[in-house]
Structures are given as structure tokens and as C-alpha cells.
UniProtKB/TrEMBL annotation:
The keyword Transcription regulation applies. GO terms for molecular function: DNA binding; RNA polymerase binding; translation elongation factor activity. Residues 5-75 form the Transcription elongation factor GreA/GreB N-terminal domain. InterPro entries: GreA/GreB_C_sf, Tscrpt_elong_fac_GreA/B, Tscrpt_elong_fac_GreA/B_C, Tscrpt_elong_fac_GreA/B_fam, Tscrpt_elong_fac_GreA/B_N, Tscrpt_elong_fac_GreA/B_N_sf, Tscrpt_elong_fac_GreB. It comes from Sphingomonas aerophila. It comes from the Bacteria. Residues 85-157 form the Transcription elongation factor GreA/GreB C-terminal domain. This is Transcription elongation factor GreB. Necessary for efficient RNA polymerase transcription elongation past template-encoded arresting sites. The arresting sites in DNA have the property of trapping a certain fraction of elongating RNA polymerases that pass through, resulting in locked ternary complexes. Cleavage of the nascent transcript by cleavage factors such as GreA or GreB allows the resumption of elongation from the new 3'terminus. GreB releases sequences of up to 9 nucleotides in length. Belongs to the GreA/GreB family. GreB subfamily. Keywords: DNA-binding, Elongation factor, Protein biosynthesis, Transcription, Transcription regulation.
Length: 160
């Protein structure tokens, strides 16, 4: 990877929980089902066996991805941010666009981004444009619908 994989402690805990659930609970259940189905004879038309093997491949692929992401993760606690007057990783930012519409975003790791909840990945175009911004700064962002200008009206970080 050419960039660090920044992630909040909560985001890392979510990745870890998913890994443990897949590895400790779901995978052993599927292995047991596949083993049982394999003992039933003809595997070519055995739905439990075929589905189980397919699901095992999906789980193993996801476990590999989660393992690589957790290994590359650099956990950053936004509550420990030094310069709280500027927008950095973990900041919750209130923006106002040219049409006076307010928007609240929190800059989080790319693995925990969820636009519907206002969580924007650290490497998203809007997050890159906001990095280092202070109150009152204007930032221009190139979006698929065109260019937009935002004013930073509030910056907040979680408390320690």
C-alpha cells in the first residue's frame, strides 16, 4: 500500500469483531455442514455441500481481506488530536455550500466510511479538500455533478 490505512479505534474494533465472528462462529458452522453433506454421498447435486463450499470460499476471501486491512491499519484516536482548530482525521465538520445548505461530515478511515451516516473516508475528494481547513475557510471540491465551494462553519472532535 502506498498510503497508511488510518482508522479510528471504533472502526478497528468493528473490523476485529467481524473477523472474530466469521472465524470463530460462522466458519466452523459451515465446515460442520459441509462435512455432514459430504458424508451423504453424491456431491454433484448436494445443495448443502455446494452452497457450503461456496460460502466457505466467500468467508475465507473476506477473512484474508480483513486480516490484510487490520495488519495495515494505523489506529488514530481523534480524541487525542493536537490541533483542534483545524480539520484532521476524526474531525466532525459542519459545511455550508453556496446555496446555504448545511452538511455535517466526520472524517474517518476508508474502511469505515458510510456516506448515509455522514462518515466520509479520509481519502475521499471532499476529505482531501478539507484537510487542514480552519473555521471560515472556503474549500472547492470537484464532485461528479461539478465543482462546489464549501465554507467550514464548525469543527469538533470527540472528547477524551
Amino acid at each position: 500500500m502506498d498510503r497508511p490505512n488510518y482508522i479510528t479505534p471504533a472502526g478497528y474494533a468493528a473490523l476485529r469483531a467481524e473477523y472474530e465472528q466469521l472465524f470463530g462462529t460462522e466458519r466452523p458452522q459451515i465446515v460442520e455442514t459441509v462435512s455432514w453433506a459430504a458424508g451423504n454421498g453424491d456431491r454433484s447435486e448436494n445443495g448443502d455441500y455446494l452452497y457450503g463450499k461456496k460460502r466457505l470460499r466467500e468467508i475465507d476471501r473476506r477473512l484474508g481481506w480483513l486480516s490484510r486491512r487490520m495488519k495495515a491499519a494505523k489506529v488514530v484516536d481523534p480524541a487525542q488530536a493536537g490541533d483542534r482548530g483545524r480539520v484532521w482525521f476524526g474531525a466532525t465538520v459542519t459545511l455550508v455550500d453556496e446555496d446555504e445548505r448545511a452538511r455535517v461530515l466526520t472524517l474517518v478511515g476508508d474502511d469505515e466510511a458510510d456516506a448515509g451516516k455522514g462518515l466520509v473516508g479520509w481519502n475521499a475528494p471532499i476529505a482531501r479538500a478539507l484537510r487542514g481547513a480552519a473555521l471560515g475557510d472556503l474549500r472547492r471540491v470537484v464532485l461528479p455533478v461539478g465543482e462546489k465551494e464549501y465554507e467550514v462553519t464548525a469543527i469538533a472532535y470527540p472528547s477524551a
